[in-house]
Amino acid sequence: MRTYLVTGGAGFIGSNFVHYMFRKYGDEIRIINVDALTYAGNLANLKDFEGKENYTFVKADIRDKAAITKIFEENDIDRVVNFAAESHVDRSIANPEVFVETNVLGTLVMLNAAKQAWENEDGSFKEGKRFLHVSTDEVYGSLENPEDYFYETTPYDPHSPYSASKASSDFIVKAYVDTYHFPAFITNCSNNYGPYQFPEKLIPLIINNALSGKKLPVYGDGKNVRDWLYVDDHCKGIDMVLENGRLGEKYNIGGHNEKQNIEIIHIILDTLKEYLPDSDPRKANVSEDLITYVTDRKGHDRRYAIAPDKIKAELGWEPETCFAEGIKKTIKWYLENLDWMTNITSGDYQQYYEKMYKDR
Ligand code: NAD
Ligand code: DAU
């Protein structure tokens, strides 16, 4: 039975990954989920697995050397999937420090603990052990020319404190591969969407605001482009790289699904109008009139677009869920899980929202 150590498994992509892996492998695998439960971590995302014999949750910080080393000492870990990170660009602009601490130093702690557990006396590594570092397309910077795409060979050019911290963590992983032949991969994925995404990110924030008749804040001219991928397709890519990727390589993952932010907002409004029955009082809230152009994000990257040619050619990965279908599934999920949204947006979220959007 393969044992996975998933970090940040209570967050958006990490929890979807745990769901994906148990759906795919059932009881053939064991998952240990290590998460510090920051504002972004939510055990409600994983309530289906509470009490499951081959699933363990450990509340720990990836910066905590002793706690992470102990997990490796007590378990024979075969795969590490490092999702744990501070992930929101706007928060990184307001408070960069924790991004460097978690994303860079935390990744270093994970690498060292895995190296210590997996290294043989002669400096080689135990058979079959693999470490996958989950990274982002934002490390490549911003594309100006509409014909350009991010390839694995595109030079890094991060702009925000978030993307700079992710780029730094990628370089640390690469240094372990180049120096020690440490068995690692890096994946650089585009914008994910789907269930369990914290409503600080564009899609769940717009769904939530539209349902409650709150303004829909559009940064700048609304024409910044992101390349949206349904979260399960990202999870599938991670699994394929872990099992069949070439050790030491990096793989770009993206959906060839570029959309301007303003287009996304109109699609969400149209889908909500289609899905909500006339009898639902929230339907009257859903209106284009809520769209409000606000001050742009500082250093706002204009366009991201991934060329997923390498993962397609080497591993046969392709996105399965087109945006038209994925956004419907996502909106349906949020409509059916209103308690999840209500719980998450009570308390600290209100303060965050005030601080981020009040004077914009
Ligand atoms: P998220 O913010 O939803 O979740 C992050 C999780 O990490 C949370 O559960 C949080 O509690 C945990 N965490 C934070 N700091 C921690 C620490 N010090 N120790 C242990 N756990 C900690 O993020 P996400 O959107 O799920 O992103 C997951 C990973 O994927 C990140 O590394 C991110 O950079 C990367 N990524 C995200 C996207 C995207 O569109 N969301 C795209 C590409 C790559
Ligand atoms: O590209 C991958 C990255 O995608 C991940 O590495 C990050 O972890 C993830 O947060 C995401 O970053 P973005 O900055 O692209 O995502 P966000 O949802 O914050 O914003 C998407 C776009 O929408 C961006 O151009 C900013 C804009 N935006 C965002 C918010 C929250 C708005 O116009 N209004 C908003 O209120």
The CATH architecture category of one domain equals: 3-Layer(aba) Sandwich
Helix-strand makeup class: alpha/beta
Overall mean confidence score, pLDDT: 97
Low-confidence blocks of residues: none
CATH topology of one domain: Rossmann fold
Elements, N to C (H/E): EHEEHEHHEHEEHEEEHEEHEHHHH
Give the proportion of residues in helices. Answer: 40-55%
Q: Distance between termini?
A: 52 Å
Contiguous helical run count: 12
Q: Numbering strands along the chain, what is their spatial order in the largest sheet? A: 3-2-1-4-5-6-11
What share of residues are in beta strands? 15-25%
CATH first level of one domain:
Alpha Beta
* Rg calculated over all Cα atoms: 20 Å
Number of strands: 13
The CATH superfamily of one domain is known as: NAD(P)-binding Rossmann-like Domain
The 3D shape can be described as: globular
- Distinct compounds present: nicotinamide-adenine-dinucleotide, 2'deoxy-thymidine-5'-diphospho-alpha-D-glucose
Largest β-sheet summary: 7 strands, parallel
